[in-house]
């Protein structure tokens, strides 16, 4: 599948954009700007052809967290202007404003990095870090860290499918799923250890720890946009900081 213009950007350009969004929502006060960031990111995802996947991932990863954080701040943030009460809980204007501000920033920053990883392959990101000067050992640590959860999820799904073929009930209530999941822990841990050992042997067979300069078949190139956009991010951030100071 051919990548569109947004996906063809260098991984570091997209990573700098995620950092730019995170810094911008911390600089700009209030929650209106931070909440507006998510629709903008959604439009970028739509332009890249991944709007549905991006929106679904954000909802699964952040919705429950945002609700919990907002309710905690609404009910327990100190304030003098009480605007409502539910039982023994009172919510104040200060708690409402801080809850909206905090959740809007979490939504913006989390969505920015979710969009980054939806637009960027892990191997491209790690290769860009290595090109930027990260040692091969550090690049491998980053790669392994980013891949460990998806890999363990695939192993767990494989084990659960194997249990289904043996007649084990794996679907139904939460209790039933918990009973089915516990027996998967032992083979999951053992398979993860075995996979780690296999990776170590594979790396050594390719002279990974040899004290020589490493070469790679995977190459990344930078376009004109990749050279200009980081400076644009910096200029905008400097303008925001000056605006906050002078405002």
Topology:
Blueprint: H1 5-8, H2 11-27, H3 32-47, H4 51-76, E1 82-86, E2 89-92, H5 93-119, H6 122-131, H7 136-165, H8 174-181, H9 185-205, H10 224-246
Antiparallel strand pairs: 1-2
What is the CA-CA span between the terminal residues? 48 Å
Percentage of residues in strands: under 5%
Q: Residue share in helices?
A: over 70%
Q: What general form does the structure show?
A: flat
**What is the SS-derived class?**
mainly alpha
Largest sheet: 2 strands, antiparallel
Radius of gyration: 23 Å
What is the succession of H and E elements? HHHHEEHHHHHH
Q: Care to count the β-strands?
A: 2
What's the arrangement of strands in the largest beta sheet? 1-2
Return residue spans where pLDDT drops below 50 for at least 5 consecutive residues: none
| Overall pLDDT | 82
Instruction: Provide a count of the helices.
Output: 10
């Amino acid at each position: 599948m051919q990548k569109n213009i947004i996906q063809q950007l260098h991984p570091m350009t997209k990573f700098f954009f995620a950092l730019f969004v995170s810094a911008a929502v911390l600089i700009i006060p209030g929650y209106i700007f931070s909440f507006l960031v998510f629709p903008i990111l959604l439009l970028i995802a739509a332009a890249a052809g991944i709007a549905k996947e991006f929106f679904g991932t954000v909802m699964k990863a952040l919705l429950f967290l945002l609700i919990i954080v907002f309710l905690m701040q609404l009910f327990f943030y100190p304030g003098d202007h009480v605007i409502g009460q539910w039982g023994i809980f009172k919510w104040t204007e200060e708690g409402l404003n801080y809850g909206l501000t905090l959740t809007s920033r979490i939504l913006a920053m989390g969505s920015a990095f979710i969009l980054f990883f939806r637009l960027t392959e892990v191997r491209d990101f790690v290769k860009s870090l290595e090109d930027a000067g990260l040692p091969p050992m550090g690049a491998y640590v980053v790669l392994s860290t980013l891949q460990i959860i998806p890999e363990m999820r695939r192993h767990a799904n494989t084990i659960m499918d194997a249990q289904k073929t043996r007649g084990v009930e794996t679907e139904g209530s939460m209790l039933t799923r918990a009973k089915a999941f516990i027996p998967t822990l032992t083979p999951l841990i053992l398979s993860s250890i075995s996979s780690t050992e296999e990776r170590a042997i594979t790396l050594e067979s390719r002279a990974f720890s040899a004290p020589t300069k490493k070469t790679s078949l995977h190459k990344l190139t930078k376009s004109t946009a990749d050279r200009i956009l980081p400076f644009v991010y910096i200029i905008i951030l400097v303008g925001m900081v000056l605006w906050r100071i002078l405002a």
